[in-house]
Amino acid sequence: MQTVKMVISGAVNAGKTEFIKTISEIEVVSTERRATDDTRLIKKETTVAMDFGRIAISDDLVLHLFGTPGQKRFDFMWEILAEGMLGLVILVDSTRPETFRETNRIIDFFVSYRDTPYVIAANKQDRPNAWSPEELRLALRQPPHIKVLPCTATDRESVKNVLLELLYVIQERSED
Amino acid sequence: MALVGNIRDFSLSDFLSLVDRGYKTGALHLSYNDQTARLYFEKGKLLLAARRPEDEKPDLLVRLGVLNAEQVAQACQTLAARGNGTTLSQVIIDTGLASPDRLQQALLGHTEQSVYGLFAWPEGDFLFEHNQRPAPDAPLAPTPISIDHLIMEGVRRIDEWERIRDRIPSTDLVPRFLAPPGEKLKGMRLAPDEWKVFARINGRDTLAEIAQKTGLSDFDVCRAVYGFLTAGMLELVKRQRVLAAGMPPVEQPRLKKSLVNRIINRIRSM
C-alpha cells in the first residue's frame, strides 16, 4: 500500500480542521483541546497537535491529509509533518488581516528550504468583509505564478477545487 | 467589497504598498480615538490626504496660500459651469489662477505632512472603499503622488525590532533584488544610510555582512531593508539557497505523472 501526504497549514482559526473534515473519508482524527491562551479569544477549542484525514485513491494508494497546529509553540511539529509531503495548502482566514503576518511566517517556513508545491486558499469567502484572493495575493506578497484560490472550507466542492488546483501544480512537476 | 482591518495588525506602510502594487482606486478611511483621516487613491497613486473634512474643500488652497478666497470662489463657479468630469485643479490651471507646479508643490507638501502624521498612530481601524472618489471640488494634486517614498517614510519611523522581525527574522538572510530597481527608485527619496545599504545589496551578502561593511547597526540595516521589502523591490533568501544557484537544498519526492493523475481522477469523482 502506497501512501502520499498533503499538508494543510495556516494560522489559528484559518479553517484547517474544517477543511480536512469536509473532504476526508474517515472521521477526522483531531487532537482539539480547550484553548488555554490567547487562542481562546478566537475559538473555544483549538488543534494542539494535528488533524488527520484520509482519502482512498485505490486499493493500493491512499492520500493522507495532515493539518498542522496553528499555534507558534507547536512549530516543532511542522518539520515532522513537512517531511516527504506531496504538496501544501496554506489556508488564510480572509476576514482577519491580523493573521496575514503569521501566514507569511508559515509560508516562509515551509517553502524557503524546500521547493514545495503549494497553493493558498483564501478561506471564508462566504463571509462579509472577506478580502478577495487577489487582495490576499498582494497582502501576502505572493508572486503571480502562485495560485491564490477562493475557498469555503465547509463546502465540499470548494475544498475539492483547492486540492485539484494543488494537484495540477504537482502534476506539472511530476515525471512522465 | 470594502477591505477592513486595523493598522496595528496590517500597518499603514503595508496597506500603502498593497494599494501601490494593486493599482487600487478608492478611499482609505482611518480612525483612531477621536481622530479620522481619509486618503484617496487613483490607480495606486495618492490624490489627496485629508486629516479633517475641511482638507477636502476648496478653501484648503487659501490656507496653503495658493489662492485667495475670491479666486477660489471664481474657480468653483467655473467648475460648476463646466459640469462633470472636470476637477477643481484642472480649472485652476486652465484659467491661469495658479501654475501646475505651484499647485502641485503646495498640495504635495500638505499631503505628505498629512500622511506622515498618520504613521505615528499606534493603531486605528481602516476601511478601504473601492472606487470611492473625492468630490469634484476637492483640491487634488494635478499629478497623482507616487507613494513609494511615503512607504519609506513610514518605515523610517519604526523604532521597534519586534515589528521588523515579523518580516526579517534573522540577519543571516540575504537581500536580493526582484528586478533591476531603476524605475521604483525614481519615486523614492532615500536617506544617506539607506543609500549605503542599497549600494551594498548584491544578492550574496547577508544583512549582518552589510551591517559590517557599512558600519551601520543591524537595526538600521534591517529597517532600510524592511522599507525596500515593503516597497516590493527585493526579497530575502537564505544563503544556502543562494549558494545553490536556485536549486532547492531539500529535494521534494518526484512522483510519476500517472500516480498524480490517479489522485486527480479520484478527487474529481468525489
TrEMBL record, chain A:
Keyword Cell membrane: no
Annotated Gene3D superfamilies: P-loop containing nucleotide triphosphate hydrolases
InterPro entries found in the cross-reference section: Gliding_Motility_GTPase (IPR052705), Gpn (IPR004130), P-loop_NTPase (IPR027417)
Pfam family, one: ATP_bind_1
GO molecular function: GTP binding; hydrolase activity
Official protein name in the record: Small GTP-binding protein
UniProt keyword GTP-binding present: yes
Species this protein is from: Chloroflexus aurantiacus (strain ATCC 29366 / DSM 635 / J-10-fl)
Alphabetically ordered keywords of this record: GTP-binding, Hydrolase, Nucleotide-binding
Family: Belongs to the GPN-loop GTPase family.
From TrEMBL, chain B:
InterPro entries: PatA-like_N (IPR025497)
Positions of the PatA-like N-terminal domain: 5-162
PANTHER family: DOMAIN GTPASE-ACTIVATING PROTEIN, PUTATIVE-RELATED-RELATED (PTHR36304), DUF4388 DOMAIN-CONTAINING PROTEIN (PTHR36304:SF4)
Protein name in UniProt: PatA-like N-terminal domain-containing protein
